[in-house]
Amino acid sequence: MIDKDIAELSSATSKLKKYVNKRVAHADEKEFKIFPTFNDLDEVIDYLVKLHKKYYTIFRGITPTFPVIYFYDWKEIFQKPWINQKT
């Protein structure tokens, strides 16, 4: 079961992984012809949520809830300047 999930994970993320490695992480200057779509990203996120639920349930014995409920104001870090302007 685990080997199957790893193979599916590799397959599901292959388009995004190639793009991230070539464009985001390494800024490869070679021509890049196949760009992932937002739909590709949505499908990968949906798959990762499904996989997370499966293994979280196996390891913890409870099913996690999505969307995640934050018990603090996670937006607060974006509302205050964090770089000292004097340096």
Structure description:
- The radius of gyration is 18 Å and the shape is flat.
- Helix content is 54%, strand content 0%.
- The relative contact order is 0.09.
- It contains two helices and no strands.
- The mean pLDDT is 83.
- The chain has 87 residues and is mainly α.
Low-confidence stretches: none
* Number of strand elements: 0
Order of H and E elements: HH
- Structural class of the helix and strand makeup? mainly alpha
Gross morphology is flat
Q: How would you state the average pLDDT, rounded?
A: 83
Report the sheet-strand fraction: under 5%
The biggest sheet, with number of strands, parallel, antiparallel or mixed sense and barrel status, is:
none
